[in-house]
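subagent[fold] <- orchestrator: predict structure for attached chain, return tokens only, no commentary.
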Amino acid sequence: MVRCLERLAGAYHDVHERCPALPRGDEKPGAVHAARVTLAEAARIALGNGLNMIGETPRERI
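subagent[fold] -> orchestrator:
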């Protein structure tokens, strides 16, 4: 389970580095940004639930 959580966190980090949820510079927010925010929330929930399953308390913010 721990390895799966590490892989999920790493995969999300890679996506976030390449495709940030917030627009850059003067770019206007669009549907793609909303989808990325939804993806971030899904990753947060999955990681939080996984950490709870192994007996760890997830942090509010990483």
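orchestrator: received. Logging for downstream: The radius of gyration is 13 Å. Residues 35 and 41 are 10 Å apart (CA to CA).
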